[in-house]
Amino acid sequence: MVDAHSPEFHAAGPESDAAPVDAEETAAEETAAEEIPAEVHADYANDAVRAALHALQETPDYPHLAAFLLALREGYLVVDITGTAGKKRGPRARTLRSTSGQLVLPIFTSMAELRAVAPASRAEELKGAVMPAQQALALIASDRFVAAEFDKASAALVVLRKYVTLAASSAEITAESVAALK
Length: 182
Hints:
Strands 1, 2, 3, 4, 5 and 6 form a six-stranded mixed β-sheet that branches. 37% of the residues lie in helices and 15% in strands. β2 (96-97) and β3 (103-108) form a beta hairpin. By secondary structure, the protein is of the alpha+beta class. α3 packs antiparallel against α4 (62-72). The protein folds into two domains: 1-35, no CATH class; 47-180, no CATH class. It is built from eight helices and six strands, in the order ααααβββαβαββαα.
């Protein structure tokens, strides 16, 4: 309750209709805002990952796969969370199923790539979470995913779980280490 002796009273003024200020909540909001870099916005794109993805598709070999996996460790990636918000658990990543029914995790290099998977009339309804790349890649371990699919609309590159797990780890990635996972 705000009364004449509380700091909220003096901050809001005696005639204010403002709700009492929760100092902890305000501090948490300020901290969260400080943690979001200016480069992360609704039109964010991870150009380094996109370039490595296209290079891998042009020349599908272990050196290019290693370069792609290394690029995945940097910046941010987008995960589709459209329509998945639960009251208790919050937003969850949407999943795909392979033709044999196995779980596949869709990951995007940008919000534009996410919007491109839907018809133009529904593109604005999509919701994506721009996440640090390591956190997005770590989602592969959150369920029985067999692979991740990157940029479904343009590239549709499916990468097996073992390679995504390697990218999510801090292990050294070289063409030789990737080839050894074969």
